[in-house]
Structures are given as structure tokens and as C-alpha cells.
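Hi R.,

Here's the chain you asked about this morning:
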Amino acid sequence: MMGDAGEPGPVPVQEAPQDPEELAAREERRRWRVQEYIKLLKSDRLTYRWKAAEALGAEPDPDAVEPLIAALKDQYVDVSWLAAKSLGMIGDPRAVGPLIEALRSDEKWLRIGAAWGLGRLRDARAVEPLIPASLRSKERRQEDCRSCTGRDWRGHGRTSADGSP
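And the predicted structure, written out as C-alpha cells:
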């Protein structure tokens, strides 16, 4: 559509179908996708597993909760941290306990995903377990930043007398 001065105008929004048959067909396709993603969580291929873990967060379905909880234990953190985030996006309280447990992982990215997921869930049971993560030592936070970015963040935000960081 063109506006008054030949500029693009608003694009009409396509309305959701009101036809019960179309709604049922869409729901059937969504459920099929969820089941296929759940199958892919068990694939031998890492890329399929992490993409499935990520996709299940965008297709909130209670059937995905248990498979995503199992994916928190995947040997590759790429999968487990995305599973943690997707559990938060789904919003099912069954995920709270496993996400709290994931906060104790040695894998930094799983801890980050678990904290993010718990934040999305907004469950009071997660408050106390999240406190130690927020109060970690300054040295540990700096170490995490160095491992993520390859940069030394000590003194970040401060400048020396000559203006250099």
C-alpha cells in the first residue's frame, strides 16, 4: 500500500482464521511439529538436538516439558542451555526443580540458561537458589567474562590517569 506521499503505508494484518476446521488443522500441524522436535532431541546429531531444544521454546506445549528436562543432561552444553531457556519459555512449573538443580552444574552456560529459565518461570521456589549465583565473587564474574569474550574485564568502566582503560 502507498501512503499520501508515495511512501509505503501500513501493511494490513492477516487476521487469524475463525473457521473451526482451519483452527483445528493449524493445531494439528503444531502438535505434529512438537512431536517431531521431541524426536529430534534424541538424534545422534548435535545440530538437530540443539535446534529442537530451541524450537520447542517457540512452540509451548506441555508434552515437551519432560523431554526438555531430560535434555538438561545432554553431554553438550549447546543443547542443555537451550533446553533450560525453552523450559522457561514454556512456563510449566514441573521445570522448576530440574532448573534449580541445573544451577549447581559445572557448566557455566547451563547455569546461565537455568537462571534465565527460572527468571521466566517466576516461581518463588527459585528465589533462594538464585541468590548465590547473583552474589558470586567479582573474580568469578570476571573469569566468566574472559572465557566468554576473550577480553579481560578487570577495571571495566574505569580509566587511568592518561584516559586509557
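DSSP finds eight helices and no strands in the chain.

Let me know if you need anything else.
M.
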